[in-house]
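Q: Here's a chain of 184 amino acids. Please give me its 3D structure as C-alpha cells.
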Amino acid sequence: MYGLVNKAIEQMVCRDHGEAVWQAIKREAGVEVEAFVSNAAYPDDLTYRLVGAASKVLQTPAEEILSGFGEYWVLHTALESYGPLMRAHGKTAREFLLKLPQFHARVQMIFPELRPPEFECTDVTERSLVLHYRTPRPAGLEPFVEGLLRGIGEMFDTPLAIRRLEDRATGADHSVFHVSWAAG
C-alpha cells in the first residue's frame, strides 16, 4: 500500500488518541519507519500490522478500527489529497458510487503502483444499488469499505444504509453490499 494510507492511519490515531499512543502502536507492530512517504509503496503486511497493533493497544476490535478508518479516509485523507478529483466524480452519493470504478482508474494515474479494488454497481434504483467489491488483498477489509461508504454518504450529506449481502470470509468470491438512502 502507498504511504498515504499509513500516514492517514497515523493522523487518525494522533487526532483521536495522541502521539504517544501512535508510538505505542508502532512499537507493538514492530514498525520502525520514522515518517511515511505518501507516494512510496510499502508492503501490505506493514499496514495490517499497524491495524492489528492499534486493535491491541486501543482494545478495540480491528473491524471497528477499519470501519472508522474508512470514514476518516474519505472525509479527511481523500478530500485533502485529491479533493477536486473527488468532487468531479459526482454531485450526489448515488452519482459518486456509480462512478467509483472510473475514480480508481484516475487515482491510478497519480499512483501508478496502486493495486486498487474493483467496484461494480448493479441493481441500481433511485434509492439504492448493490455494490460489488473485488480485491486481490485478503478477506477482512469489508469493514473498511463500509466505513468508506458511510464517509461518502457524509460527504454528500446523505446518510447511507449499508448491508453486507455476501462476504469472501464466508466463501463468496467477492463481497457484495446493498446500499440505500432516503429519497431526496
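Q: Can you summarize the key feature?
A: The first strand starts at residue 118 and ends at 122.
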